[in-house]
Amino acid sequence: MAKRTRRTKAEMEAAKKHKAAVYDPAKHDAESIIQAIINKDEEVQKHESQGLGDTIEKITEATGIKKVVKWMFGEDCGCDERKAKLNKMFPYNKPLCLTESEYEWLHTYYTEQKNTIDMKKQKEFLEIYNRVMQTKEVPTTCSDCYRDWHRRMHKIYNDYADNKSMVNNQRR
Q1: Would you say 129 and 102 are in contact if contact means Cβ atoms under 8 Å apart?
Q2: Is the dihedral of CA 88, 97, 102, 110 positive or negative?
Q3: Range with the lowest mean pLDDT among 18-22, 86-90, 124-128, 150-154?
Q4: What is the pLDDT of residue 34?
Q5: Which of 22-36, 114-128, 154-168 shows the lowest per-residue confidence on average (mean pLDDT)?
Q6: In the predicted model, is pLDDT for residue 2 greater than 60?
Q7: Could you tell me the CA-to-CA distances from 25 to 6, 14, 21, 35, 47 in Å, in that order?
């Protein structure tokens, strides 16, 4: 049997707000439902670990170590600074959303279906890839590297296209 965890006050308030936003009968149009979903996603992202520091904090809170440290060293024990430093050193990469112009460029790129890519196209592709994936990749002749970038970006492109068509269908 799984151990039941207690919600924090902030989590309970967020759940109430989400429930009111999603299930409010006065708000039945697609735009307000989509906005409620976006707000819920933003709330969930606040609680998701952004890096190793957040994960360690969650572990120390769950095991009670954090309370002991705070009791021994006081409220300003340096945990927040350590957490921020570890998050910066070891971030969890979460892709950013495509812009409309990036989507259009990728749409043209993926519909051409060429087996080779010139350096100009690769640079344009990498500008989009680096921004979305929050990396600093440079053009390369390594086909395996490029194939990995291509696959990752193609998945993001498809997700964007699926979401875009879903929103368009709801507006009709």
Answers
A1: no
A2: positive
A3: 18-22
A4: 67
A5: 22-36
A6: no
A7: 29, 19, 9, 15, 28
Residue 153 in tokens: 């970006």
Yes or no: say if 66 and 57 are a contact pair by the CB < 8 Å rule.
yes
- Our measurement of the distance from residue 47's CA atom to the centroid of its chain's CA atoms, rounded to an integer in Å, reads 12
> What tokens were used for 24?
């409010």
CA distance 159 to 151: 12
DSSP 94: -
Tokens 């936003």 -> residue: 21
Q: How far apart are CA 29 and CA 66, in angstroms?
A: 45
Domain borders along the chain are 9-89, 100-171
Burial class (CB in 10 A: 0-12, 13-18, 19+), 62: exposed
pLDDT at 19 over 80: no
What whole-number distance in Å separates Cα of residue 129 and Cα of residue 139?
11
